[in-house]
Fold this sequence. Notes:
- The protein has helices spanning 2-22, 32-45, 69-80, 91-94, 155-160, and strands at 50-52, 65-67, 99-101, 111-114, 127-133, 136-140, 147-151, 161-166.
- It is of the alpha+beta class.
- The strands form 2 sheets. It has a 6-stranded antiparallel beta sheet with strand order 3-8-4-5-6-7. It has a two-stranded parallel ribbon with strand order 1-2.
- A hairpin with a 6-residue loop joins strand 6 and strand 7 (147-151).
Amino acid sequence: xxxxxKLATLLVAIALPVTALVxxxxxxxxxxxxxxxxxxxxxxxxxxxxxxxxxxxxxxxxAPYATDCSGFTALVYKLANVGVTLVNRDDDDQAxxxxxxxxxxxxxxxxxxxxxxxxxxxxxxxxxGIYIGDGKMIHNASPSKDVIVSSINSSYxxxxxxxxxxxxx
Length: 169
């Protein structure tokens, strides 16, 4: 019996540091590039696990997740745990955070904002995605497409681009 107690104590002592690492907050020493890479991998890993729904019907507590485009970006940043929490899950609010980035100067993890094709106001944010590199973004596009990767250089997105925002410094 004493052997089992000592073995259990030893196993707990060994397991504690591993558990602490798994649940530790974002590493402040993590480089910006490492944070950006983690955002991209987290977003790509959510393909097939997120369904597009209107903002009134969002459910982002457990997979399968149900959200809109700005809920998706907030969810990615939350799950990546890189020390950045996006304000709210509203694309208009998200378009005001971080540092403004001009077209063509994007880094992985930057948020890209667009106006919707049905909007008459071309400065009104209607969609957001996350830049993943190589001229592409990942975004929760629509009820028929869910999370997809798209070229930001397509005429559709290029002409609807409003602003990029860098939230990882």
